[in-house]
Write a sequence for this structure.
């Protein structure tokens, strides 16, 4: 957790979530039943962005939720957007909430937190009701409802219209993006200048020629373009020492040159795991 959180402190909401899980386990229960298991150890995949700090997982298919720091531009994790990372889905990374408190609102507004991934992007209330109907008729829902009620009590949340909320959050993010990226998160900024986006090799080669082409692009790239390169490289390649290690080393060096120390440290640690 020290490596993941870096210079950030662990938010109170995460500590309360861990405390709740520990109390439930003593009673033979777990937040796994509602897809909200707090992360207390290493939990990430090669697709997990280096500026995302995982804090909870659903208990299935590697789906996890994390704080998006937008490459350290967020100084307080309580204000960081929350994303859902799903290694097996396309797109694998999905903006979910404006911050941790609002995430807890929508998490306690569905029968199972994993539905925040399954039903994304929650196009409208009617389609949402149809998707939720299977869970609501589930024989296990009574048990889940008790845990959801406990979640609402601990975090003082109330039920909200998840469909309407998520659509608003996605629209707000889209309006703030100055450079689109493959993962859908994009790069934020206020600059009016047009930013270039690097064109990666369709065959995903990482030979000397491709590495040199990347370096030429990065040499004259703006800060936003370099961040966009990092996001797209994370999506385009499998950045680990067992796969695309040449690109991995290039990205780590790039982040260090941008003084993104926490991000470089996370990626180095995760890629060796």
């Amino acid at each position: 957790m020290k490596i993941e959180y870096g210079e950030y402190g662990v938010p109170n909401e995460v500590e309360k979530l861990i405390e709740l899980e520990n109390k439930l386990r003593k009673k033979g229960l777990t937040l796994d039943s509602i897809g909200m298991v707090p992360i207390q150890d290493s939990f990430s995949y090669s697709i997990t962005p280096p500026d995302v700090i995982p804090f909870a997982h659903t208990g299935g298919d590697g789906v996890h939720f994390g704080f998006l720091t937008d490459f350290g531009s967020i100084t307080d994790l309580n204000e960081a957007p929350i994303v859902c990372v799903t290694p097996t889905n396309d797109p694998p990374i999905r903006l979910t909430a404006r911050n941790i408190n609002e995430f807890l609102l929508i998490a306690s507004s569905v029968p199972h937190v994993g539905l925040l991934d399954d039903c994304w992007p929650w196009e409208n209330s009617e389609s949402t009701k149809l998707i939720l109907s299977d869970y609501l008729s589930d024989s296990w829902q009574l048990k889940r409802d008790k845990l959801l009620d406990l979640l609402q009590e601990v975090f003082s949340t109330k039920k909200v219209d998840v469909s309407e909320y998520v659509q608003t959050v996605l629209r707000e993010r889209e309006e703030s993006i100055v450079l689109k990226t493959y993962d859908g998160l994009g790069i934020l900024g206020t600059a009016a200048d047009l930013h270039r986006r690097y064109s990666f090799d369709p065959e995903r080669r990482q030979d000397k020629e491709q590495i040199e082409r990347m370096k030429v692009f990065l040499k004259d790239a703006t800060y936003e373009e370099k961040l966009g390169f990092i996001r797209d490289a994370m999506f385009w390649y499998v950045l680990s020492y067992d796969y695309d290690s040449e690109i991995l080393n290039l990205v780590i060096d790039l982040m260090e040159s941008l003084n993104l120390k926490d991000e470089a440290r996370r990626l180095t640690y995760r890629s060796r795991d």
